[in-house]
Specification:
The chain folds into 2 domains: 330 residues, 3-Layer(aba) Sandwich (Aminopeptidase); 186 residues, Glucose Oxidase, domain 1 (3-Layer(bba) Sandwich). Strand 7 and strand 8 form a beta hairpin. By secondary structure, the protein is α/β, with parallel strands linked by helices. Helix 1 packs antiparallel against helix 14, helix 3 crosses helix 10 and helix 12 crosses helix 15. The protein is built from 15 helices and 21 strands.
Length: 558
């Protein structure tokens, strides 16, 4: 699951949502009430299909995709290509029709990427700041090579505010200088006024207008520098046709406390002392009267990655022109320049395993549903839902004929034990919600709505690309029926240690029955949508509605 941006700030939002979910999914908080007038009992065909969802398939797919041979399934990398080929072979094994380019299972997407290189450095006097250890460049990185030299100047918070009667830049000539800035705020200052005056847009914009040559900023987040640097030093990917910035920014670096102390060496004081002065409301800006040099080296590449799509054709001569689409992203962060592999087991090899187990159940249990079923494994999710955004712009199936999208993505709470409670992100927004509630009542699980909608977790995975095009969609996450304290502790530990880290691996203690239950839930929901009389609609209160169908929409490829 992607953060809103590549900053760790948005991870904290997801952490709060996940922890609140753990608190809320107690027996008294769930609901099992079925939609009025609807049967909750499973039909013989549904029971047969449920039995066809195999733990062995989920385990095999997850373990294979998270194996070292896949090298973290990076977007537009050899490891990503191997993962796509494995998924394609699974589609072939299940007898699914290809729904990619030119009769293949692959929808090719051109990407571009860049990654700062370890030989990048900052020097001033006798001090050398090392890439990663002392500093990392912040995006965007406009050039393959940047060599900037200028006088070194500390500007404190960089705040200029008549309202606060503060001007950290007064008396300083900043043109052509490399500026050092820190964050946080002084004691006893109005928080709202400070937030306005000290926003990065205002501070950095003011510095750029003064013609600076570069910025070195102290880590002012409440996350450790090592974690922030881990993210910022990774390869970054975008669609090949994304426009470049119309202008070039000076280099912007984030420095550790140790790196900042190296910059302050010989200045008559330490960085820690300067921070203390600033917190006490004193001015600490100063010209260090010595030059500094920033040398950045960036590796840029272009490549092709693929969405992988398979089709189970519907059995009804007319309704087969409409489809349910299951999605899960198969990409993770690949292999770092230091050789670390981001296996992405819970996020999201596990999601792909569940979707493929659903495909197997539909393909092997029979009879086929009335509507067609699309199974779509997406790339580029971790970099901004790139694969799903590309697919909805270049759909292999008319979007107005997609009845619903069911997405699998998350942090792996399903493996904590037998799943007894499920959160449906988006459940309350469309007519899919009552279907989910009926399935829950039939299978003995509790459904929990999005516990913290203001954190916008609903907008942070691939289903949201479909939602924006008017397709009713939801994402399913599961959790065991366990005591709240244990669940909270386990989620918190995973968020802090494993989320988007090399340690997100398949572990011996995983309970594979949990993912099977979540897969069965999604399979039954999809089957009921596929066999229903009409396509689900958004609720009138939802801001998401289908656009008017195109006058000459292309026919589905059957």
């Amino acid at each position: 699951m992607k953060p809103y941006t590549r900053s760790r700030t948005d991870l904290r939002a997801f952490s709060r949502a996940a922890l609140l979910l753990a608190i809320l999914i107690q027996p008294s908080a769930g609901r099992q009430s079925a939609a009025p007038g609807k049967s909750t009992a499973l039909t013989p065909a549904e029971r047969k299909a449920s039995a066809a969802v195999k733990v062995e398939t989920i385990r095999k797919v997850t373990s294979t995709l998270a194996s070292p041979e896949m090298e973290g399934r990076g977007t537009a990398t050899p490891g990503g290509d191997r993962a796509a080929a494995f998924i394609k072979n699974e589609f072939v094994r299940l007898g699914l029709k290809p729904l990619g380019d030119a009769g293949t299972y692959f929808q090719a997407i051109k990407f571009k990427s860049y990654e700062a290189q370890p030989e990048s450095a900052v020097t001033t006097g006798d001090a050398v700041l090392k890439f990663g250890e002392d500093f990392v460049p912040a995006p965007p990185l406009n050039s393959d090579k940047q060599d900037v030299t200028g006088g070194l100047v500390f500007v404190g918070y960089g705040v200029v505010s008549p309202e606060l009667k503060r001007d950290d830049l007064s008396g300083l000539d900043l043109k052509g200088k490399i500026v050092v800035v820190t964050g946080a705020r002084p004691k006893n200052v109005d928080a709202a006024a400070w937030a306005k005056a000290a926003s990065p847009e205002i501070v950095f914009g003011g510095l750029f207008l003064r013609g600076i040559a570069g910025v070195i900023a102290a880590n002012a987040t409440d996350e450790p520098y090592s974690l922030v640097a881990n993210y910022l030093s990774r390869r970054r990917v975008s669609l090949a046709d994304d426009p470049a910035l119309a202008f070039k920014l000076p280099p912007i670096l984030l420095a550790s406390s140790e790196g900042m102390e190296k910059l302050f060496a010989g200045s008559g004081g330490t960085f820690a002392q300067a921070v203390q002065k600033l917190e006490n409301g004193e001015r600490a800006s100063q010209d260090f009267n010595r030059p500094a040099t920033i040398n950045l080296r960036v590796k840029r590449e272009e490549g092709t990655g693929s969405n992988v799509a398979g089709l189970l054709e519907g059995s009804d001569p007319k309704l087969k022109e409409e489809a349910i689409i299951y999605t899960a992203h198969y990409d993770a962060y690949g292999k770092g320049s230091n050789g670390q592999i981001f296996a992405g087991a819970a996020d999201n090899a596990l999601g792909v395993g569940m979707v493929l187990s659903i495909a197997e159940a539909f393909a092997k249990s029979g009879p086929r549903p009335k509507r067609s079923i699309i199974f779509l494994a997406l790339t580029g999710e971790e970099y901004g839902l790139l694969g799903s955004e590309y697919w909805v712009k270049h759909p292999a199936w008319p979007l107005e004929k997609i009845a619903a999208n069911l997405n699998y993505d998350g942090i792996g709470t399903e493996v904590y034990g037998p799943v007894k409670q499920v959160v449906g992100y988006g459940l309350e927004l469309s007519e899919i919600g009552p279907i989910v509630e009926n399935v829950a009542a039939a299978t003995g699980i509790r459904i929990v709505p999005d516990p913290l909608p203001e954190e916008k977790a609903f907008e942070r995975s691939d289903h949201y690309a479909f939602v924006k095009k008017g397709v009713p969609a939801m994402m399913l996450l599961g959790a065991p029926d366990t005591d709240t304290a244990s669940l909270v502790a386990r989620i918190k530990k995973w968020i802090e240690a494993d989320y988007h880290q090399p340690s997100d691996i398949v572990r011996p203690e995983w309970n594979w029955d949990g993912p099977r239950t979540l897969a069965v839930t999604g399979m039954l929901v999809g089957a009921r949508v596929a066999n229903g009389q009409g396509m689900p609609k958004w609720r009138p209160s939802s801001r998401f509605q289908r656009p008017a169908p195109a006058a000459h929409a292309p026919a589905p490829r059957l």
